[in-house]
Write a structure and sequence with these properties.
The protein is mainly alpha-helical. Helix content is 68%, strand content 8%. Strands 1-2-3 form a 3-stranded mixed β-sheet. Strand 2, helix 2 and strand 3 (42-53) form a beta-alpha-beta unit. Helix 6 runs parallel beside helix 10. The chain starts with a helix and ends with a helix.
Length: 272
């Protein structure tokens, strides 16, 4: 028996393995090698003589007990070692779960769940914002003196006049595409003369309003969102509230009225 085994392991009593000395990290590897040898028939392990103990020593002892088939609950730890042995024992008893092949279904379900929850949250916020805007607009209409006419006309210029070239160009190009596709199909039936009615009905009923709405949503409304978002980041909206003003009345109502007035006019222009 080596010096390490002589200082830490006592097998003088048949069927009993007595552990003593220091069971700490520096000597854990050597102790595990000694315990892996044939110790004979061991029915009981005593640990009361261990003077110093750390988590590495507890792991070595628990591995020994697992190999010998002895229940760790039978050990009589010293009072100062009992809490450490209990904590390491709980971690040592956790069996690793076998690796399962991930097909991505669970991750997909989690993403779908988070997306649905986010849509629900955004929908509630949008509904609340809509109610706040409508209530503020009703207050402005009841008291017209609170309407900021200069800001409204300024936004009408941004929404309407500045968007005229783009609206006219977009509607003309889409109309040309519809006419080209329509005359290609109608020629097979000898009805290419009706391509005029096709373009007219398409723009009067659908494309004129739809293209204008898409243009305003992508160009003007996104610009409004960026402007108000920048003001929020620079704490200008908090300054407006500090001055006793209503940010909805000051920032949202003029832009909303400008959109409501200019959308029909731009739709008429797109139809022409």
């Amino acid at each position: 028996m080596s010096a390490i085994a002589a200082d830490h392991i006592d097998v003088s009593v048949p069927g009993t393995l007595r552990l003593r000395g220091e069971w700490t990290l520096p000597g854990a590897a050597a102790l595990e090698r000694e315990l892996s040898r044939d110790l004979g028939r061991v029915e009981r392990v005593e640990v009361a003589a261990i003077e110093r103990l750390d988590s590495a020593g507890v792991v070595v002892i628990l591995r020994l007990l697992d190999r010998l088939g002895i229940d760790p609950a039978t050990l009589d730890w010293r009072e100062e070692h009992r809490a450490l042995a209990r904590t390491v024992g709980r971690a040592f008893a956790v069996e690793p779960h076998p690796l399962r092949r991930d097909y991505g279904v669970q991750a997909m379900a989690e993403r779908v769940g988070r997306a649905v929850h986010e849509v629900w949250r955004q929908g509630r916020m949008l509904l609340g914002f809509l109610g706040l805007v409508l209530s503020t607009l009703a207050g402005v209409l009841l008291r017209p003196a609170r309407l900021r006419l200069t800001a409204t006309v300024h936004h009408m210029e941004q929404v309407g006049l500045d968007a005229v070239p783009l609206t006219a160009l977009l509607s003309f190009m889409i109309g040309a595409v519809v006419a080209f596709l329509g005359i290609t199909v109608l020629r097979d039936f000898g009805a290419e003369v009706f391509v005029v009615e096709l373009v007219g009905f398409a723009f009067l009923r659908e494309f004129g309003v739809l293209l204008t709405a898409i243009l305003l949503a992508g160009r003007t409304s996104s610009a409004f969102t960026a402007q108000i978002g920048a003001m929020k980041a620079r704490e200008e909206i908090d300054a407006i509230r500090t001055l006793g003003l209503d940010p909805i009345e000051l920032l949202v109502i003029p832009r909303l009225l400008a959109l409501l007035v200019m959308l029909p006019l731009l739709s008429f222009l797109a139809t022409l």
